[in-house]
């Protein structure tokens, strides 16, 4: 009985912590984030397993965690509000080359992250080549490029600026 | 799988309401034990001894040697004044301060063998035996 309660508590706590610390925590993972995850798992393990190292305990813990996960995913499919609450919604953070700073600040994403995603996904150089940048539920940033190149008003003259000049947000 | 989880919550795979059980020697001793335990995990064995169960030298509670051989006793609360070895049993002697009051003795144990086992507990000098069965999961 304790094993099930422990696993369920840990699941709930972790869900809350990772929901409130934002999408970025697990999205674009750095080496340090990875180490942090390992440390978190070590810390959690002690609380969950306690002094009971039996095979049965391990089985019950795994079963509990998986069953809660399955139950929640089934529930999320039926109750959209729950899905929004548990996983958040995709957030538009750049619109037609303009960074939406308050949203970016809230999600702890900066222009550099958007540009990195733009470079990686579409080989774009400047922010004004981005039609929309969306911070997805998974924590990834997806980029929709401006069709036919950047809007003319914000396009810098050819060769006048280094490739990443668009990193500073337009005023 | 969901059913297994519900059964685990109920205590079929360790502690829980389904696992809690008791056996008694009428008027003398009531023993609370776990029907289902796990290998090398803590479990408790609580002996409630009625006033009639205490003799002049205090309470002399014995536990079957075979059961103890398959267990590791972590703590006994209250600690016994001494332990005497009998042939097939160990006798724990607890001094009582007020002879007229019931006493609860709690053994914190860990099972050291997997599978079904039988335990016997009684009061020395009395024929009554509280016999219980326990299954130890791996």
Average pLDDT across residues of chain A? 80
Q: H/E series of chain B, N to C?
A: HEEEEEHEEEEEE
Structural class of chain B: mainly beta
CATH class wording of chain B: Mainly Beta
Number of helices of chain A: 6
Number of self-contained structural domains of chain A = 2
Q: Give me the secondary-structure category of chain A.
A: alpha+beta
CATH T-level fold name of chain B:
Immunoglobulin-like
The helix content of chain B is 10-25%
In what order do the strands lie side by side in the largest sheet of chain B? 3-11-10-5-8-7
CATH architecture tag of chain B = Sandwich
Order of helices and strands of chain A: HHHHEEHHEE
As residue ranges, the low-confidence spans of chain A are 153-171
The pLDDT mean of chain B sits at: 89
Major sheet of chain B, described briefly? 6 strands, mixed
Give start-end ranges of low-pLDDT stretches of chain B: none
Gap between N and C termini of chain A? 59 Å
Shape of chain A: elongated
Give the domain tally of chain B: 1
Q: How many strand units of chain A? A: 4
In short:
Chain A is 52% helix and 11% strand. Chain A is an alpha+beta fold and 171 residues long.
Structure overview:
The complex is a heterodimer of chains A (171) and B (138). Chain A contains 6 helices and 4 strands, in the order H-H-H-H-E-E-H-H-E-E. With 171 residues, chain A is α+β, with helices and mostly antiparallel strands. Chain A has 2 domains: 2-87, no CATH class; 91-167, bsu07140 like domains (CRO Repressor), CATH 3.30.240.20. Chain A has a 4-stranded antiparallel sheet with strand order 2-1-3-4. The longest helix of chain A is centred in the middle third of the chain and has 24 residues, at 55-78. The termini of chain A are far apart. Chain B has one domain: ntegrin, alpha v. Chain A, domain 3 (Immunoglobulin-like). Chain B has 2 helices and 11 strands. Chain B has helices at 2-10, 65-69; strands at residues 20-25, 29-34, 36-38, 42-49, 59-64, 71-77, 82-85, 89-94, 103-111, 115-123, 129-137. Chain B has a 6-stranded mixed sheet. Chain B has a 5-stranded antiparallel sheet with strand order 1-2-4-9-6. Chain B is elongated, with a radius of gyration of 15 Å. Chain B starts with a helix and ends with a strand. At the A-B interface, helix 1 and helix 3 of A face helix 1 of B.
